[in-house]
Amino acid sequence: MVVAGEQRFAWELGAIKEIVPTPVVTRLPGAPAWVLGLLNLRGRVVTVVDLAVRMGLPSGVGASIVVLELDGRMLGVRVDEVRSVANAEDATVEPVEAARAADGLVAGMVRLTEGTASLVDARAFARSVLVTA
Q1: CATH code of the domain containing 52
Q2: For residues 87 and 90, what is the distance between their CA atoms, to the nearest angstrom?
Q3: Distance of alpha carbon 35 from alpha carbon 48, whole angstroms
Q4: C-alpha angle 23-51-5 in degrees, rounded to nearest 5
Q5: Which of 41, 50, 74, 101 places its Cα 20 to 30 Å from the Cα of 67?
Q6: pLDDT, tens digit only, all 133 positions of the chain
Q7: Can you give the pTM of this predicted structure?
C-alpha cells in the first residue's frame, strides 16, 4: 500500500518491479502536469508520473518511485510514502461507482490490515500514461 495526495492506493504485487528513492528526473517539455519526466534506471529510460496529480489530488513530497513493469515496458510512479507490502490474495475487492473509478484507473477498493485502499488497475494506468506521455 502506498500513499499519494493523502490517499491510499494499492497495486497487484505482480505489476511492481521495484521501489526506489526519488531520483532526479529529466522534465519533458509540453508533457501533461502529471508526467514528471524521464528517468535513467540502470540504462533503461523510464517515464515517471506523479500518482497524486494523475488521480486529481494535490502533489505531495514524492519520497519514492514505484516501478511497474507490464508487458516488458516500465513505468515509474512517484508516491509520497510506501506503507506496506501485503498479500491481498484473500482480500475482498469491492467495486467502485463510476464517479470514483478515476476514468477506469481504479479497479475497486481493497481492505487491508492498514485500512481501505483504491486498487489501481496497473494496465489501464500504464496505458493511459504511456499513450499520453
Answers
A1: 2.40.50.180
A2: 8
A3: 6
A4: 100
A5: 101
A6: 899 999 999 998 889 999 999 888 999 999 999 999 999 999 999 999 999 999 999 998 889 999 999 988 999 999 999 998 876 666 778 887 754 566 788 888 898 878 889 999 999 999 888 765 4
A7: 0.88
Q: What type of residue sits at position 92?
A: T
Residue found by looking up cell 490490515 in the block = 113
- Return the number of other C-beta atoms located less than 10 Å from residue 39's C-beta: 21
Question: How many domains does the chain contain in total?
Answer: 1
Place of cell 515496458: 73
Which three-class secondary structure state does DSSP give residue 84? coil
Listed in order, strand segments (DSSP E) in 43-113 are 44-50, 64-70, 73-79, 81-82, 93-94, 106-112
